[in-house]
Amino acid sequence: MGNSSRVTEFILRGLTDDPHLQLILFVTFFILYAITLLGNAGMIALIWISPQLHTPMYFFLTHLSFVDICCSSAITPQFLCHLLKEKKDISFVGCFTQIYFYGALSTAECFLLAIMAYDRYVAICHPLVYLVIMSQLKCVQLVVISYIIGLLHSLVHIIPASRLFFCGSNIIKNFFCEGPALLQLACSDISLNNLLKLVFIGFTLIATILAILTSYIYVLITILKMHSAKARRKAFSTCTSHLMVITIFYGGLAFVYAQPGKSHYTNQIASVLYVIVTPMFNPLIYSLRNQEVKVAFRKILGEKVALLFYTKH
Fold first, then answer.
1. How many Cα atoms occupy the beta-carbon half-sphere of 215 within 13 Å?
2. Could you tell me the residue ranges of all domains in the chain?
3. Topology relative to the membrane, per the entry (predicted)?
4. Residue 53 near residue 287 (C-beta atoms within 8 A)
5. Alpha carbon distance 238, 241 (integer Å)
6. Quick one: DSSP state of residue 250?
7. What strands, in cross-sheet order, belong to the sheet with 9-12?
C-alpha cells in the first residue's frame, strides 16, 4: 500500500445530493437493514432452539443467514452514515477492507448455496444413507471450507489491487467500495487484476453453478420417478425455497455485473438491490414457504404465549 501514498482516501458517489431525499433514503434503508438483521438473526435463533430443525439443511441455512448478516453489515452501516454526511469519504485502508470482506463473504455464500444443493441431492436421491453421508463432521468441514475459500479467494484479488498506483481522481462511482469501480481509478496497469478476476471469479461462478445444476438435475429425475404424488410434493417443497434463494442471488449478481455499458445511476440502483435488499429475502423465503420452519415458529410462539399466560395468572 506504500506505492499508493498519493491517495489517502476515496470519495463515494452517493445515490443523491438532495438532503431531503437522503433523509428519506436513510429511513428506508435503515428499515431494510433492521429487517435483514432481525430476520436472519431470528432464523438463526429459531433453528438453534428448535430440536426438529437440527438437521444438515438447517445447519447450512444458519450459516447462510450469518453470511447475509455479515455481507449487509460490511456495507450498509457506512452507507447509512454517508446519507447523513455531506462528505462521503472512506480511507484507503477502509476501502480495501470493505472490498476484501464483502468479496470473501460473497464467495462463501456461493459455495454455501452449492453445498445446500448437494445436501438436497443426497436427501432426495439417497435418503437411506443421508445422515451417514451428511454427518455432523462432514457438515462442519464443508462450511469451514466455504469460509476458507472465500477468505483466500478475496485475498488473491485484494493483494494485487493494493499494490496499484492511485494518483488521479479518487471518486468511486458507487455508494460503496466496489472492486471494478476502484480499478478504474488506478494509474498503473490493471491487466493482471483483470486476468485474476476473469480466472478466479469465473471459476467460482462456473463451479458453483454447475454443482447446483447437476444436483438439481438428479433431484428432478428422482422426483419424476416417484410413484406417490404426496412424496413428489414433499420433495419439491424441500427444494423450492432453496431454488428461490439461488435465483435471487445469482439473478442479482448477473443484473449487477453482466450488463456492459450501464449508466452510473443504473449501476447504483442495481447495486442497492443486490447488496442491501437481497440479504433481506432469504429468511422471508424460508419462513413463508417452508412448512417445517412455520411449524417450529408456531410451536415456539405457542410456548412463549402459554408461559406468559401462566406467569400472568
1. 23
2. 9-311
3. Multi-pass membrane protein
4. no
5. 7
6. H
7. 89-91, 9-12, 171-172
CA distance 289 to 276: 22
Q: What is the pLDDT of residue 310?
A: 61
Cα 45-46-52 angle, rounded to 5 deg = 130
Burial class (CB in 10 A: 0-12, 13-18, 19+), 136: exposed
| Fold type of domain 9-311 | Rhopdopsin 7-helix transmembrane proteins (1.20.1070)
171: β partners: 11
Three-state secondary structure call for residue 18: coil
Lowest mean pLDDT among 31-35, 52-56, 283-287: 283-287
Mean pLDDT of the chain: 86
Which among 160, 94, 121 is positioned nearest to 243, based on CA atoms? 121
**Helix axis angle, 264-272 relative to 229-257, nearest 10°?**
150
Quick one: cell of 268?
447504483
Average pLDDT over residues 189-194: 91
Query: Which residues 6+ apart lie within 8 Å of 23 measured at CB?
Result: 83, 84
Which H helix or E strand runs over 219? helix 202-225
How long, in residues, is the chain? 313
191: nearest Cα among 164, 155, 152: 164
**Residue 237: its pLDDT value, please?**
77
Tens digits of per-residue pLDDT, 229-254?
A: 877 887 777 788 888 888 888 887 77
Query: pLDDT tens for residues 253-296?
Result: 777 666 555 566 677 777 888 888 888 888 888 776 677 777 77
Sign of the alpha-carbon dihedral angle for 68, 184, 153, 263: positive
Residue whose C-alpha cell reads 476484501 in the numeric block: 100
DSSP letter (8 states) at residue 273: I
